[in-house]
Amino acid sequence: MIDVHAHLEQMDFDNDRYQVIEGCKQKLKAVITCCAHPEDFDLTMQMVEKHKGFVFATVGIHPIYIKEITEKEKDEFLDLIKENKDKITALGEQGLDYFEIKESEWQQKQKELFIEFIDLSKELNFPLVVHSRDAFEDAIRILEQEDAKQVLMHMFGAHHLLKRVIENNWFISLNTIILRSKKHKKIARDMPSEKILTETDSPWLDPAGGRNTPLNVKIVIEKISEIKKVTFEEMDKITTNNAIKFFNLKI
Ligand SMILES: [Zn+2]
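Above: inputs. Below: predicted complex with zinc ion.
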């Protein structure tokens, strides 16, 4: 089992981060932690160093932070990413969020930043983790326009656009939302297993309403195997291999 999208730098883990990661090592093959703000970069890199071969990092600027990052901070962050590229596995979560950001001028800024990260992902040959809340159509259009190839759609909820994701040879990561969302269940049903990765988005999205941890990726795999009518072991093997291949994980 691999959790390809958690936020282990969040303060929810400040008191027991080490124990949580050690606990994950007993059950999982790897966790990819997502640094979504420049101020989380140092802690993310510390985790990667300390848990080499187990904790991997994807790095980006979450589109909901578009208003608070200055041009200068953004440029410095892009330089930091390039300087540290050997410790980074992927870029993102990058993309668009029209749920949180409603003003068109800020949505425009999100698009520009998204394109910058798509370019950087090509330059560094990194996969790109895409966030596209309430902006699925625009996100797909931009990715197509920019000819992005190594794409993982995180929290993708637009079943009517799934065909385009499949045709573009992109991947999708599913999380515990499939327990309660019909839309996401349908996506799990219709996405080829070879293109599915599993995640938790910890500390958020705990099915019991508390703090989520990467260990709950097991519940996600259980649910997908139920939907796909295959055994847990089979689905675990497929999604774990997908993650290793997609992110080129050295484990
Ligand atoms: Zn996230």
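Residues 5, 7, 34, 93, 201 surround zinc ion (CB under 6 Å).
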